[in-house]
Design a protein that fits this description.
Elements lengths: L2 H15 L4 H13 L3 E4 L6 H10 L5 E5 L7 H4 E6 L4 E6 L6 E5 L6 H13 L1 E4 L2 E4 L5 E6 L12 H4 L4 E4 L5 H16 L14 H12 L5 H13 L8 H6 E3 L3 H17 L7 H12 L4 E2 L1 H5 L4 H11 L4
Parallel strand pairs: 1-8, 1-9, 2-5, 5-8
Antiparallel strand pairs: 3-4, 6-7, 10-11
Helix pairs in contact: 1-2, 1-3, 2-11, 8-11, 9-11, 11-12, 12-14
């Protein structure tokens, strides 16, 4: 079985358990293949927690959920030194970050020092306690969630720290047909007393996943498409060439991390589609999730009700496609 077939089986398995959220399922797989982290924003009850938990069942690795609260401390994530009275020594007790797949539930409920500890681990793939640095697992993916409804008692992530996430994904309610399927699925699970989803027949090994990542990097991207990708990101910093209205909407554009993330995500999107080359549609499909948290709009744009997605739509419409 090829790596693409194995990943397709994993996608099918997760899609059977997570109904009506195909975008979330695809973005999780793309984050796995692009070796990045995911920030997911959506109302309660949209299967955000269930999605990554089901995904972990199909991968050789362990999963841990951390509920972020205002009283959380950095050591609750990284771990701490435990005193051993029998011999007067200290032993390091690993925290939740030493698992492969991490769910940081409601990340905006924890104070800045806790958010910083998580984001440092995401960027450096290591943590330091005292004078000792500990390496995190090679397979390390963080999916953080935000609840857009409640804002009291929350600590919004600074824009500079949002940049650490590969993608910022918005999810919405399922349609009527999907919600009916959800009813049938939950009724079946209750009838059979299934506390957790059944595991798939086979799991993707970490070695196969790393091999799939190499295949993604080998996906062909024509030079003119590479230039198009760069122009799309660069136009978010200097949009005046594409219209005076865009220049008035912008305060800060996307960072160079956006170019790198869009390159990896577009390749992963093409690979999941079974192609060995990138198309303009791959770049355009991933542009919103990669760039929406890296662009800061002006006060005037926000006053007019302009969103970052609207700004990105205009960039895609105005930047010439090769």
């Amino acid at each position: 079985m090829s790596h693409q077939q194995a990943m397709q089986q994993l996608r099918d398995y997760v899609s059977q358990q997570i109904i009506g959220q195909s975008i979330l399922v695809d973005r999780l797989l793309i984050a796995l293949l692009a070796d990045g982290h995911l920030l997911v924003e959506g109302a309660p009850g949209l299967a955000k927690t269930r999605a990554i938990k089901v995904l972990s069942e199909g991968i050789e690795g362990d999963f841990h959920r951390v509920q972020f609260t205002p009283d959380l401390l950095p050591a609750d994530l990284t771990g701490t030194e435990i005193y051993r009275p029998q011999d007067g020594s200290f032993k390091f007790q690993q925290g939740p970050l030493f698992h492969n797949l991490i769910l940081s539930d409601e990340i905006n409920r924890a104070p800045a020092k806790v958010q910083s500890a998580l984001l440092e681990a995401m960027a450096e793939r290591q943590i330091t306690v005292g004078s000792v640095t500990y390496k995190l697992p090679d397979l390390f993916l963080v999916m953080a969630t935000q609840n857009p409804i409640e804002q009291e008692g929350t600590y919004p992530l600074p824009e500079a720290q949002l940049d650490r996430f590969l993608m910022h994904v918005f999810i919405d309610y399922p349609d009527a047909a999907s919600e009916k399927e959800i009813l049938h699925l939950t009724r079946k699970e209750a009838r059979e007393d299934l506390r957790e989803p059944a595991k798939p027949a086979t799991q993707i090994s970490q070695a196969d996943l790393f091999a799939a990542r190499k295949e993604v990097l080998d996906i062909h991207m024509a030079e003119n498409l590479e230039d198009y990708l760069l122009h799309l990101v660069l136009s978010s910093r200097n949009p005046g060439a594409y219209g005076a209205d865009l220049a008035e909407w912008l305060q800060y554009g996307a960072s160079p991390r956006a170019s790198m993330a869009l390159d990896r995500c577009a390749r992963a999107h093409a690979w999941l589609a079974g192609r060995d080359f990138v198309t303009p549609e791959d770049i355009q499909t991933m542009a919103h999730d990669v760039m929406r948290h890296r662009i800061i709009l002006s006060f005037e744009a926000e006053a007019e009700g302009i969103t970052t997605d609207k700004f990105i739509d205009e960039l895609i419409a105005r930047v010439a496609v090769p």
